[in-house]
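Methods: example folding runs. The two proteins below were folded one after another, and each record is reproduced exactly as written to the output file, sequence line first and structure-token line second.
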Amino acid sequence: MSSLTYPDGSPVARTYTDRGQLATVAFNNTTVDTRTYDDGGRMTGSSYNNGVSESRTYNTDNTLAGITFSGAPIEDLTYGWDANKNKTSETITGTMSGYGFTVPSSGYDDEDRLVGWNRSDSNLDQAWNLSLVGDWNSFTENASVQSRTHGPTHEILSAAGQAVQHDAKGNQTLLPTSLSPLATSLSLHWDFENKLLGADVDNDGSDDVTYQFDALGRRVARDDGTTVTVFVQSGQQTIADYVSGAVPASPTYTYVYASYIDEPVIRGGTGGLRYYHRNQQYSVIALTDGGGLIKERYAYTAYGEPTILDSSLSVLATSLSSNRYTYTGREWDEALGLYHYRARMYDSVAGRFCSRDPIGYADTMLLYSFLLKSVLGQVDPSGFFSTSDRDVSIASTCLRQQVQTLINPGTQPSPVTDPSCGMRVMELALEGELHGQSEDLMKDTFKTLIGPGLPSGIPGHVADAVVDALLDISLTGDTDVGSTTDVRDRVEGILRKKLGDHFDELERRAIDAIIDTVIDGLSVPEGCQRATFSGSGSNEESSCQMTIFASAGTTRWRSKYSITDGVCFYKCKPGNTTGSVHKTQRCCCGTSRTVTFGPISGTANNTFGGGCTDFQTNGVIK
């Protein structure tokens, strides 16, 4: 997403590198974050306009080696990893050094699950005894052992001898003190879609905090009995908080994000600007103000129990900055001591979600599991799936292949060896991991296709505008245009709206060159079967649901098709002799259908089943 205007009128603008990576973020017409990358596409630096910046270095296997901060006394971070890319340490320099951690040599089991974790100051050691599925049979903290029992669907029945209650759908309705982050037990109430409706914190039989959700399942309001807060959503991100009844011009807070869905950069509103600083896991470790002064610091246990500190390292009972974005960038609800992970609520004391996975047994038999493996390195922004850098890489490759296949069904991309390839695309889409990236990917693919046809000297904004115009046509599905002239007119109309008075002959040349390139790109892909037609005069021939017009010296095209029914790609070009036309063709259809070529002398009908077939029909073009 390049630009967005918030309800109070504040503009947010983003620019991207030639490779589609986030370059800058601007808020209220001021650039607040500037980013740099290495040749491998890894972010190497981020500089805020309050004078605080970070630098990142990487190991040869692309794991993050360290983060160095400057401009504010935010302690530097150094990471250790084992051969399976499990995080083994986070070393923190300076005054926060005691909040680092190490994983002992036996800290991961044979399935790379965390079973041991020690804080650097030696004041907190944790260990887990896991079942084959991943239930915590017991949990040890500083030599104090908590035993748990589980039911047939792996719900917790008891912890430290205290009963845990669930409703018929498996949602936890009572968290005893042994599992509650609070000093008392916690009662939870759920709706028919397993969304948290309310919580009784003081055990008086009535909800102290209630929530509301929209039709898309997004949390849009919170009522704590004193204040009703309304959350304004853009996609799956909260971009503004309002007190119920406030006018659009008066938000309590506004939030601006970087490229990852849970990567807030800056918060505006009450109390002034606050800048977010993160570790490898996107967990917020510090807040700075507009002058670069540290306002709060944050530290976490292995499963995310937060410790909030002020600038002088005094531990706070609650955030004095009213900040709720903490562990893995998700929202911490202080009243409940739970995290809001969109689809589900997460209990960091229990180390699991409070309800079952909405997608069922897609990736584990443990429906309450939080970050199946690599709990120290992965994220789960949606509450559906855990995500690692490798998952993102796989999904990105899959998505690029899918986009290429949609543009050119004849391509046969090299398969990704991971069998979960397609699933990861879906998962990341559900998580919002691909939010705002699909359009950039489409643009990048379009640019790759049309790049060779761009006349020299075409400004970047012109090429971008033409690509945007083509995307506007293709993504709406309204491609019923009769010729390249029609395409040109459509693109020109959209482009004039985008460029206004800046539209000139250079833009028209760009349109012509790009459209010619796109049409020429509708050729039979290498390795596909081919059929050839030749003759003189002009013709109109149809196949599948695509119509081609071809005549000597010109090429015009019309496309109107359904991806599920089939797509045909053609290349038409003038022949060696005046008036002759050569055509190559390949059809790929999902179902059996009859294809008629005409008008040709001796019209031929051909029926073929699903898949790709070449046609050897020959005829004299009338």
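Second run, written to the same file directly after the first:
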Amino acid sequence: MSGSSFGCLVSLSMIGVSCRSQPRTTSHRVEPALMPLPQVRIVCDGSSLGNGGESAVAAAAALLSHIGPAKVTRKLVVEYLGPATNQQAEIVAACIGLEALFVPCQVQVVTDSTYVVKTMTGRFRRRANQDLWRRLDRAAAPHHVAWQWTRGHAGHPEQEACDRAARHTAKYGGSDEAFLARLLRQLEEPASRAAAP
């Protein structure tokens, strides 16, 4: 059990749970109800190039940030959708962020889609995209989720990174790991400069 993935982008040891504190002959079980839920922030965005047109192609991106006691750990996930609308891409962006978590978490989902936020908070009725809403319901079910809207293209670095990742994935028809790694490094650079003496 040592070093096994905790799911929220970290190992058990990274969140302060030691799996080797008991002898091997003793069963050691941590009751989930006694542990605080890992804190995760998901910033997500969808993009449909040529939205509404016959040749539209779409993709979704989500940036997951696990807020640990000593540092923030980030992961960027994308999904190429092919022909899809911008609204569909926005729903899928929230889905892939939540689907990347393997244990229940306290999650803040940040999106520039009022469609997603208002639908998930019960202010919009689900008239279309029923299969995607069901997927999002399943992805959100294990977690405590707070939905937050942010203005798109307003200089929010994490939102801008997701927008770039979604557009790049839609344009090139799939995930480009080198491009995603570069986006993550760019997000880390301002933080490391601010921490320098």
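Comment on the second run: The CA atoms of residues 95 and 135 lie 7 Å apart.
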